[in-house]
User: Fold this.
Amino acid sequence: MSNDKQLTTGAGIPIGDNQNIRTAGPRGPLVVEDFQVFEKNAHFNRERIPERVVHAKGAGAYGYLVVTADVTKWTKARLFSEIGKKTEAFLRFSTVAGEKGSADSGRDPRGFALKLYTEDGNYDIVGNNTPVFFIRDGIKFPDFIHTQKRDPRTNYKHPQAQWDFWSLSPESLHQLTTLFSDRGTPKSYRHMNGYGSHTFSWINENGERFWVKYHFKTKQGIQNNSTEESTRLAGQDPDSATRDLFEAIESGDYPRWSVCVQIMPEAEAETYHINPFDLTKVWPHADYPLFEFGELVLDRNPSNYFAETEQSAFEPSSIVPGIGFSPDKMLQVRIFAYPDAHRYRLGANYQMLPVNSPHATQANNYQRDGAMRFDANGGNDVNYEPNSAGGPAENHVYDEAAYNFTTDGVGARYDHRVDADEYTQAGNLFRLMTPAERGRLIDNLVQDMQPVSRDVQIRQLKHFHAADPAYGEGIAQGLGIAIKDVVDASTAVPD
Ligand code: NDP
Assistant:
């Protein structure tokens, strides 16, 4: 009969002594037959799994998304099919560049990764707290992240690499303006917005497609730490955001976001003056206003950090019927990269882990075997398809809706900088800030760029100046550079 108070080995064998190793005499060496001490230490040595290359430090919670307005004319997705419908959710917040033990408060975008356990399988919206990103073509992602990490020789972080890269990648300017603004140091995970960032599609019952962008607007209000406060917290309270989220939920103060969407009919993408699939640009609200249709609430902490938050795995490829992708060049690469990262970090069966498996339905397929396959592995059911045994089969009802990937089907590496407007929206953001906000933005940038080489400073200043002359002049002044030298400089900016 099992006794859950009896300490056992992994094989369930009762342990008599967990304090003393087995030795040859009271002062003699360890005897090799003490398999208990070997098992205990060997398992301990294997407690760590690879940390995520990005978004390594995170905090998660469960909750739900409830629909508050009718969106059925735009999407047939069943989770959005009626007002009042609730879908269970898991949300993982994170910082991006720091390692798993890094401080929560640093200047960095924040991840906002949402898993919705729908009756049609899991729907993941893997976003950030910023509506745009540093790059728009996924082929640049590994290079970009290398500049955010440690120097390959010294193993410390130095801003030279990131400003070198950013100054040569002017599409980063819009995100940089957000990152170095007050919103670059959110007070907590509760006091910031989330954005799906990419353009996705919604498909209705008639097969009509609408391009959409998700916005999750915090009901706690936007609150940010000053640069000084975020530096203090990094030293004195490095887990500040993780703790804030846990304690708020534990005390019944459940964080909430209103769930909104911008909607563009499919054909308008052809004529809209901004490329709607460019991740470095927003859709101005005046053109595409937000439509609020739901509320997201977090009301339950995980009971085990590793099992749930660390092992949670989100992937923009997980979409459900009624939802579609878009030709966004970052999204297209992320559709591959995220599941690939999970297979490396967690193994081929990562979707079977409880936090990742569907909760409102079940996986039904012919995937078998693989490391750590800990369920019945399909038992003695047939393991191929098609079959005559009545096993799970396809249903064309669920075929993806067709869409025009391109009006010109020639395969080539098209220049993603073709519209060359890297400046208007970054300038718009600068101009909507109050004078005090602009002053802090400029101070933060001057502080970060100070250690960078002069040629890179000047190349980057040209971008700030192009976004708004006052923006460029303010930073140039802080760096002790005459704006005339910036304007006159012939420093090369890529085509
Ligand atoms: P709007 O004036 O309609 O929208 C500006 C939006 O900017 C606000 O709704 C708010 O978005 C966000 N915002 C306000 N203050 C700040 C700040 N200090 N720092 C960062 N973001 C702020 O104009 P547009 O839609 O034409 O956008 C103008 C600029 O605003 C854009 O170039 C972009 O940089 C920024 N922005 C636009 C968003 C969009 O989806 N259109 C979303 C976020 C920023 P929110 O409610 O999401 O906080």
